[in-house]
UniProtKB/TrEMBL annotation:
Annotated cofactor note: Binds 1 zinc ion per subunit.
Residue ranges crossing the lipid bilayer per the database entry: 12-34, 40-66
Family listed: Belongs to the peptidase M48 family.
Listed GO MF terms: metal ion binding; metalloendopeptidase activity
Signal peptide: none
CC cofactor: Zn(2+)
Domain Peptidase M48 residue range list: 118-312
Pfam families: Peptidase_M48 (PF01435)
Keywords assigned: Hydrolase, Membrane, Metal-binding, Metalloprotease, Protease, Transmembrane, Transmembrane helix, Zinc
GO annotation terms (biological process): proteolysis
Name recorded for this polypeptide: Zn-dependent protease with chaperone function
Amino acid sequence: MRRPVLKIILRLGRYAVLPVVAIACAILATWLMIMDRYTIAALATVPIVFSIFTVAAALMIGLLLLPSRKHRSFEASEEIAPGLWAMWKELDPTFVRSRRTLLIDTDFNASIEEVSRYAGLFGQHVTMTVGLPLLIVLDEPAIRAIVAHEVAHAQLRHTSGGANLRDFISASENMLFYADPDRTITGRIALALLHSMLEWLEREYRALKRENELGADLGAAERVGRSEMARALVMTEACGTRLTDLVFAPLEKEILGAINAPRPPLDRIIGQLEDIRAHEPMIAAAVAGLDRENDPDSTHPPLGKRLANLGYTDIPEIGEIRTSAINQLLSRDAVRDLPARFDGEWRKKTQAWVSVGR
Ligand SMILES: [Zn+2]
């Protein structure tokens, strides 16, 4: 029962609240009809029917007045990221059919999202986001496998769900603005119901995402080969661990005691690139990742499972990373300016934060 409900929400997004509103209206209509014949029963149920209808009305208003989402990443045109665009075109046979946006952000991650506005009447808009640390740390073949993985997500139609689910959740949460849980009983009941509903929705969604990851890995392996995909998985896992150990964990510690914003993250990554990619510790990090168990809170299956899905029982030979994909995939100006630009934004935000903390 739960999976079909999740599928409906992933397909309809915020408009999935409409059936709930429709049911509430039907209850109200029935109640009005029985009013004449069973007046006492009707009067006794006033609080219940009234509450249901208030929640439905709040859901409806919440749906209509949903603020639009805005992304904060950097939009990369074909001049800024010629290599990345070329790679996307090469790997995606449906490229011409939909409109595309390429974003670059500061995560060690990549993702793809598809939005069909007005029920798909004006076609699909596909947005791929690639993290700058990924482009700095990994080499071109690894990024190619990652882009192929994202393209496979889009082709297997894994992409529209995420944005729709978030939309649905914010439409449902928006309801609480109009049925205040601090002041009304209806709002309090709505909040309790919403909490348990959102909890299972998130849980089911994470399970579905983990299944999708395995599907996308296989799809990508068809395009770039199994060994390239496996290599990219191992490198992402290992470098992710190395980045946490060498850059992000020390940085977090420094911020806690800082008066001024410390040296920003991308500058550190570029400075410590050789250490991050050192072969021995990287393999050790990959082997440690292989033993990781399935985490119910994660949207990604553990490395061991993803490698097994591609037919590997152990860490395959991955060789060394000698070049940075950023140099081949972004324009020379972007290679110079983009890390500084993101670091500048980071420094401004962190400076404000440490000044408040003093
Ligand atoms: Zn994925």
